[in-house]
């Protein structure tokens, strides 16, 4: 979708831009597929702040998105509408099944109202269809990829993202993720054909602080601007450096460059090439 620029009448709107949502359906979400979402604002059950930088934000209804699509295997479902979802960067599509039941899925790019999609072990190689990875040709763009059997899509779900199948070797398939990481996934797992919708999301410019507050983010303060009792980088006279070999978190752990992935994670065995 194209990017819509604001009229530069002040400093805030001079760099302000949004994705043009004109082609989306402006209708209320399905009532039985939504639930009210309570904001915790970074606080625990006692109301104490445990995560700084979060708070406020606009009210949101959470849409239940079907990441599995395994209830109607082999049957054709029809896309009724393409809608905006405030809880994710991608758009969502409302589909109707043969028994008139409805559900939300992540909308692929260029899918249109009235299109028919299918989820099956072997389905036509068509935009929006979901099938087992071993039945998808190599070099095909896919998204919403399963990591475990019947676990639902876990990988590649954000706007404009896609993975590419490099090859299939028996039980596993090699895929290249958007980060550049090459890893093995189960070839019997399911994936959806196509690129995730809302490709132009990355070109959007926030432009003003008020939009960030509406997203549920509060101001972030640098560590070196704090007192020594509040942060390891704090203290000193004037614009002093952090005064240590490497930066640290407020609790003294190494930051900025330290690998945070759990070394005991079993899925690390399936990573062939780490992300760039």
Whole-number mean pLDDT: 92
**Helix/strand/pairing category:** mainly beta
Strand order of the largest sheet: 9-16-10-13-14-15-17
pLDDT < 50 stretches: none
* Count of discrete alpha- or pi-helical segments spanning 4 or more residues: 2
- Round the Cα radius of gyration to an integer and report it: 22 Å
Tell how many strands the DSSP assignment holds: 17
Question: For the record, what is the CATH homologous superfamily label?
Answer: Nucleic acid-binding proteins
Q: What is the CATH topology? A: OB fold (Dihydrolipoamide Acetyltransferase, E2P)
| CATH class category name | Mainly Beta
The CATH architecture assignment turns out to be Beta Barrel
For the biggest sheet, the summary is: 7 strands, antiparallel
Molecular shape? globular
- From the N-terminal CA to the C-terminal CA, the straight-line distance is 28 Å
Pattern of helices and strands: EHEEEEEEEEEEEEEEEHE
The amount of helix comes to under 10%
When the domains are counted, the total is 1
Oligomer: single chain
Beta fraction: 15-25%
Overview of the molecule:
The chain has helices at residues 11-14, 209-214; strands at 3-5, 17-19, 34-36, 61-63, 76-83, 92-96, 102-106, 116-118, 130-132, 141-143, 145-146, 153-155, 163-169, 172-176, 182-186, 190-193, 271-273. The longest helix is centred in the last third of the chain and has 6 residues, at 209-214. It has a 7-stranded antiparallel β-sheet, with no helix packed on it. Strands 7-6-5-8 form a 4-stranded antiparallel β-sheet, with no helix packed on it. Strands 1-2 form a two-stranded antiparallel ribbon. The chain has 2 helices and 17 strands. The protein is globular. It has 276 residues and is mostly beta strands. The model has no long low-confidence stretch (mean pLDDT 92). It has a single domain, classed as Beta Barrel (OB fold (Dihydrolipoamide Acetyltransferase, E2P)), CATH 2.40.50.140.
